[in-house]
User: Fold IucA/IucC family siderophore biosynthesis protein from Candidatus Manganitrophus noduliformans.
Amino acid sequence: MKIPLQEAGFPSLAPIDVDQLHALDAALHSREFITVRRRIFRQLIESLIYEGVLVPEVEKEKGGDLLRLHGREQGGTPVTYRCRARRRFSFDRVRLDPKPVVRVRGGRSMEAQSLSCFLLEIQASLGTDPDRLVRFTEELEQTLLKDTLAQHRGRRERGLLRGRAYDDLESGLMEGHPYHPCYKSRIGFDYADHLAFGPEFAPMLRPIWLAARRDASRIAASGRLRPERFLKQELGEEVYGRFLREVRRRGKVPEAYVLIPVHPWQWRERVLPLFYNDLREDRLIQVGTAKDFYSPQQSIRTVANLTAPHKASLKLSLGIVNTSTSRILAPHTVRNAAPITDWLQRIAQEDSFLREELRPILLGEVVGVAYDPPRPDLLQPAGYGALSCIWRESVHPFLSEAEKAVPFNSLACLDRDGRPFITPWVEQVGLVPWVRRLLSVSILPVIHFLYAHGIALEAHAQNMILIHTDGMPQRVAFKDFHDGIRFAPALLAAPDLRPDLCPTPELHARVNRNSYIEAEKEEEVRDFVHDAFFFVNLSELALFLDEAFALPERRFWTLARGVIERYLRRFPALQGRIALFDLFSPTVQVEQLTKRRLFPETEPRLHRVRNPLAFVKGE
Assistant:
């Protein structure tokens, strides 16, 4: 069976696209290049100062501080980088002035032009080793290139984001991580890959399907379905039958194999180089492509079904690094996905407050497959998590006729007309009533899982979805459970119900000390909620509403605390657990995302910051 080169994962073999080259050149000479470079400088300096990596010289001024960062050129000439910033009420975040960062040398001042030059000149103050600094610099530079291409394309595209369907918003939102300076590095993608597979360019792709030996794979499925029947429904009987016939054509028994889709880039760059011998010996069999087309979502490795939006999304292994995290799918997390789904969905069904009032949607990760053959210890890291998939339920079948879904991070973004995405919704009912409703809808299920059940959800960015009717918040959906929850077994409300999960292997822990599910202390569980939901989602929204709608940050957090206090009054029986997971603690720990890139993963990189919920009274 012949497969076109691009579908088989060989886009680089296609002829050079002259129009694409012209578009690349235009982007590099555009105002978007300067805008993106200024943004990266801001987020880089904000995070370095906030995480204590850099300590600037501070001169107090009205309305903010003048900051100076001192360094030296390679020849020893002193240089100073100058900017203005304020400490914000939300977790004491550092926020730079929108004006450009200025580089001063020999009395001459000009806008800072080079990210790599900046890091090299302040290197002595960073305290990191040269190899890590080089890798970090590459991530920044690649973010500049790739976001410039995305923004240049987006600014010239007609049509607003408002009113678009959920899957279109997932590809239309181009902001990336609002705190991490390497928010679009995508190390491993060249610029052609970026255009071919980046969600901002709304590509249509079809995964390559393999049949993998069952005895070399880890397989997990929700207890409420049969994997083979599920895959037959997803693929359609004709395609499913065609795949099985291909296995038989090789003289193999289909029952000894399990089907697994592969991202085209992953096929070309990782699977072929790593598993060519497995393909030669038919431990892996390429069976072709299916009929449905998919589009990448914000997380890049998750692709939504464009042909049939009600069908499952595919979370595929992707061996790139983005926001400083490898996008492989670790086999133990694939194995844990379905049991965690069944556990959380059972809780949501049996808890009357969740079932009847909050009605959160938990997008189940219903099937998971990871090809994980035995390999020598020395070779294990290379193939670890390189060939895995998780099937996740689509949000569409869960929505009523009147309901629509939007990614939660869309609430803090500007539309292409320069106005906030949420402006029409806010104008309908007023800013404070709308924000109060939003906070109630989003906070209550997160804290109820924490207080009533002892489970922390990693409800950050696109992991939370707002469900609304005509812009009025109604409920939320959650996703990404396979490595996005945390609990302490002894502190669960019903410990006997927790699933038997695969532990985090040391190989995985060495790469990311912050990636684990089972904790020992209540603070680890509580601060998982603070870090993901309050620090990422709500503090970004608080800053945005202050800057775009003049809603003071402190007022935002009084509204948020009011939601929590009303919950506490309603559930007096939970007082002991509420004290255990005290969300009003004066300080909390959040992850040091930038520091992680500059120093070894010998320990979790966390720092203690002021909790805004502790310094307001509820409204």
